[in-house]
Design goal:
Helices cover 43% and strands 18% of the residues. The chain starts with a helix and ends with a strand. The chain is an alpha/beta fold. The protein folds into 2 domains: 4-72, no CATH class; 83-273, Vaccinia Virus protein VP39 (Rossmann fold), CATH 3.40.50.150. The mean pLDDT is 94. The chain is globular, with a radius of gyration of 20 Å. The strands form 2 sheets. The protein has a 7-stranded mixed β-sheet. It has a 3-stranded antiparallel β-sheet with strand order 3-5-4. Helix 5 crosses helix 8 (157-166). It is built from 10 helices and 10 strands. Strand 1 (103-108), helix 6 and strand 2 (132-138) form a beta-alpha-beta unit. The relative contact order is 0.13. It has helices spanning 4-23, 33-46, 51-60, 62-72, 83-97, 114-125, 141-149, 157-166, 188-191, 224-237, and strands spanning 103-108, 132-138, 151-153, 177-180, 183-186, 194-198, 210-215, 238-246, 261-263, 270-273. Bound molecules: S-adenosylmethionine. The site of S-adenosylmethionine has 21 residues, from loops.
Length: 276
């Protein structure tokens, strides 16, 4: 006989499988304590008897699925995350961006915005600030609200400073924030270059003609089919010769478009759209 606890673990596994099969979002490898807690919390809030009842509802009620998707959505981010990536952007991508008279960069799935503020700093230091527009999108309005504030926890500053330096920063990271008690307010001039907007990568349309698209640590939660759809959206949203940056555990492998891009940097998921 299984205990109640074991039964609820089975139910979580089945729920994640149902989400994957019906909607293509893949949280199956993320059945961590965090995911289980989120699911139980939603079950309690909706007053459902058990997780199987939740599974039934989300299979038949897409609006309810959206609520659960927000609950499960993993928003972890940090400034200059994976410093080697930023170093590669400085060395290999900046010279390409510099050939454009106006530079539009789209960060898709930007969460609370740390990635955008990092890119704003990098491109400012590269001397490209005057001809730059950054766009940050996410489908979660709550994280976007935080992103617009441009505030990070002061306790993260030490790690961010370390990331910034390892990512090739040429100034002092302290130039870019003002610390106040347990919060650090990012320099308002960084915000001037960033527009935040709600955009769902699965259901919404092409997003302008971009010189660079950065979408990191988002596709890992998508099925192959969804990855293909989203990479096609990126392909259509990039100018010829535009740059696509994915996360370290992501690639173009399942997109069917791998031969339309060339890999720009060995060991980094940084690609350039072919000119043809
Ligand atoms: C793990 S965070 C990655 C944040 C940042 N790109 C980074 O690498 O640090 C994933 C983000 O993708 C967003 N996301 C997931 N599915 C999405 C979708 N269909 N459309 C837009 N954003 C999505 C989530 O809301 C979350 O903020």
């Amino acid at each position: 006989m299984t205990t109640d606890h074991e039964t609820s673990k089975i139910e979580v596994t089945l729920l994640l499988e149902a989400i994957y099969l019906k909607y293509g979002y893949d949280f199956r490898n993320y059945s961590s304590a965090h995911i289980r807690r989120r699911i139980r919390r939603r079950q309690e809030l909706t007053g459902m008897e058990n997780i199987s009842a939740m599974q039934h509802r989300l299979l038949h009620d897409e609006e309810f699925f959206q609520t659960v998707l927000y609950d499960l959505s993993i928003n972890v981010t940090e400034m200059f995350r994976d410093p080697a990536f930023y170093l590669a952007v400085r060395e290999k991508v900046v010279p390409i961006l510099a050939t454009h008279s106006f530079i539009k960069v789209w960060h898709a799935g930007c969460s609370t915005g740390e990635e955008l503020y990092s890119m704003a700093i990098l491109l400012k230091e590269a001397g490209l600030y005057d001809r730059l527009q950054l766009y940050g999108t996410d489908f979660n309005e709550l994280v976007l609200q935080k992103a617009r504030e441009g505030i990070v926890p002061a306790k993260a500053i030490k790690d961010y400073t370390d990331n910034y330096q390892r990512g090739g920063g040429i100034s002092s990271f302290s130039d870019y924030y003002t610390a106040k008690y347990e919060r650090a307010l990012l320099a308002p001039e960084l915000k001037k270059k960033i527009l935040f907007a709600n955009h769902n990568l699965v259901t919404d349309q092409v997003f302008g003609e971009m010189q660079m698209i950065v979408c990191r640590n988002v596709l890992i939660y998508f099925s192959r089919e969804l990855q293909k759809k989203v990479i096609t959206l990126f392909y259509d949203s990039l100018c010829r010769g535009g740059i696509l940056c994915l996360g370290s555990r992501e690639s173009l492998q399942f997109s069917g478009l791998a031969d339309r891009f060339s890999q720009l940097v060995d060991g980094e998921q940084i690609y350039q759209k072919m000119y043809e």
